[in-house]
């Protein structure tokens, strides 16, 4: 059955390496039918392969379906196939190494087809060294996202719209490769959608009725960064090493959150820390010392027990979306495990608010101590959280003093937000900041983290670190700052 799904049986028949009578178990047909009815990709792929096998079989090959081979389950069906081959003296064609070993042990002749496949997938032809992702949809021209996180553009790869048959063939090829190689697996298989991890590629396949047509999205990381590549301030590096144990990494989609989380995981692992991850799907590219768990193959209770008993120093949770995810993060953090959570947020304070709606306000600083906001692939803001009892800013009656969670800019120490309860509401109040109290050097470092500045000869000289991410928005901000100070603007490399 595995050799049907991965296409190896059909290719042997087409090449003339298998001739004569080819027997297909009726139980296999029934299995593929039931899986296809449930919307799972293995069913569609199996039926498509059987159809192609019947249509493309050359002269001298007879395709038969045997009702003698049945099974109540997938594994019982494999057992029935082995017994049938033994009784009939037939050759068993399989790409399953365990099935091959078991069949050979009882005396069945085996043609094993499970060698790793070679050659490029068709979808890989759409990628080059700068391609982040490829977006293919039936009836539409193929598109690619080219560049790097925070600085990319969509490129049309062809003017010709793709046909459904092309998408179906690419999907079959991707699933076949994932089932027959050691670096690929089907992560999620639902009615209407399939998510595959294949080497560096994360592939999302959708089909009707979930989507209005066949669609394939393939994403590939174009760079694996180290934490040192981010040119983080020494103060932040010291915090990550000594004090940060409840970390939120936030940012908008495509900003580079997972890339930074990956670098942080490797940073801790390189310093002798035990690091594990929770992912859905498992698409982070990490060293073998870091164990990666999938949410799709275990419930939250099982993951909680595993992590609580194995006691990692840090667990990276990529990405946290619903109440169950946040509950697991909170439970493990309160149990003393260092936690790094990745969340979607358009502003840094949004990440804190997502937690504030799920736990008591006074617990937040015990759960989250550091919020790192990623913008355009770089760290653009870092918050630290603390709690105190005081009269919230803006209130005047002393009897209204209460516990207040203070959200401060970690690098400058400025208070930016206060969070407190008023009645039954959680208030998140921005605190007015005196921007004029900041030095011009501080203002530059806020715009471009890691940059240094000095004023000399009537010019604002910005010293850029290696691999600085200087987007057009940041350049405009620097020009505005220089204009406000009546200075020219110059850029020079920073001497490290």
UniProtKB/TrEMBL annotation:
Q: What is this protein called?
A: ATPase, PilT family
Q: List residues of the AAA+ ATPase domain.
A: 243-466
Q: Which Pfam families match?
A: T2SSE
Query: What organism does the record attribute this protein to?
Result: Acidilobus saccharovorans (strain DSM 16705 / JCM 18335 / VKM B-2471 / 345-15)
């Amino acid at each position: 059955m595995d050799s049907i799904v991965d296409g190896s049986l059909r290719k042997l028949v087409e090449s003339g390496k298998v001739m004569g009578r080819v027997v297909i178990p009726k139980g296999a047909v029934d299995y593929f039918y039931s899986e296809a009815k449930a919307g799972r990709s293995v069913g569609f792929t199996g039926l498509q392969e059987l159809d192609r096998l019947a249509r493309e079989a050359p002269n001298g090959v007879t395709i038969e379906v045997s009702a003698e081979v049945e099974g109540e389950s997938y594994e019982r069906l494999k057992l029935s196939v082995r017994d049938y081959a033994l009784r009939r003296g037939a050759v068993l064609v399989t790409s399953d190494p365990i099935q091959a070993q078991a069949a050979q042990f009882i005396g069945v002749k085996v043609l094993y087809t499970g060698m790793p496949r070679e050659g490029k997938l068709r979808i890989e032809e759409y990628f080059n060294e700068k391609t982040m992702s490829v977006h293919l949809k039936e009836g539409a021209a193929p598109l690619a996202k080219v560049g790097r996180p925070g600085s990319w553009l969509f490129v049309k790869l062809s003017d010709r719209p793709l046909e459904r048959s092309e998408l179906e063939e690419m999907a079959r090829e991707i699933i076949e490769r994932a089932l027959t190689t050691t670096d690929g697996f089907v992560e999620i298989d639902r009615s209407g959608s399939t998510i595959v991890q294949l080497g560096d590629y994360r592939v999302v396949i959708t089909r009707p009725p979930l989507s209005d047509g066949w669609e394939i999205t393939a994403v590939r990381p174009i760079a694996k960064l180290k934490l040192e590549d981010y040119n983080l301030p020494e103060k932040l590096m010291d915090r990550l090493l000594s004090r940060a144990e409840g970390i939120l990494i936030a940012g908008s989609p495509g900003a580079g959150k997972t890339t930074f989380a990956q670098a942080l995981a490797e940073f801790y692992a390189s310093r002798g820390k035990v690091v594990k991850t929770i992912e859905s799907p498992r698409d982070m590219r990490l060293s073998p010392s870091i164990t990666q768990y999938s949410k799709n193959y275990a419930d939250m209770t099982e993951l909680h027990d595993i992590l609580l008993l194995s006691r990692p120093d840090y667990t990276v949770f990529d990405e946290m979306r619903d109440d169950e995810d946040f509950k697991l993060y909170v439970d493990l953090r309160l149990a003393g495990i260092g936690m790094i959570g990745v969340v979607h947020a358009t502003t840094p304070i949004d990440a804190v608010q997502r937690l504030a709606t799920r736990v008591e306000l006074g617990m937040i600083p015990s759960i989250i101590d550091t919020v790192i906001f990623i913008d355009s692939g770089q760290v653009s803001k870092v918050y630290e959280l603390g709690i105190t009892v005081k009269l919230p800013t803006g209130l005047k009656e002393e009897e209204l003093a209460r516990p207040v969670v203070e959200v401060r800019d970690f690098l400058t120490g400025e208070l930016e937000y206060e969070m407190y309860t008023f009645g039954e509401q959680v208030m998140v109040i921005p605190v007015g900041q005196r921007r004029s109290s900041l030095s011009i050097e501080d203002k530059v470092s806020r715009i471009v983290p890691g940059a240094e500045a000095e004023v000399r000869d009537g010019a604002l000289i910005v010293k850029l670190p290696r691999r600085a991410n200087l987007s057009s928005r940041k350049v405009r901000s620097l020009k505005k700052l220089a204009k406000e100070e009546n200075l020219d603007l110059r850029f020079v490399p920073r001497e490290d």
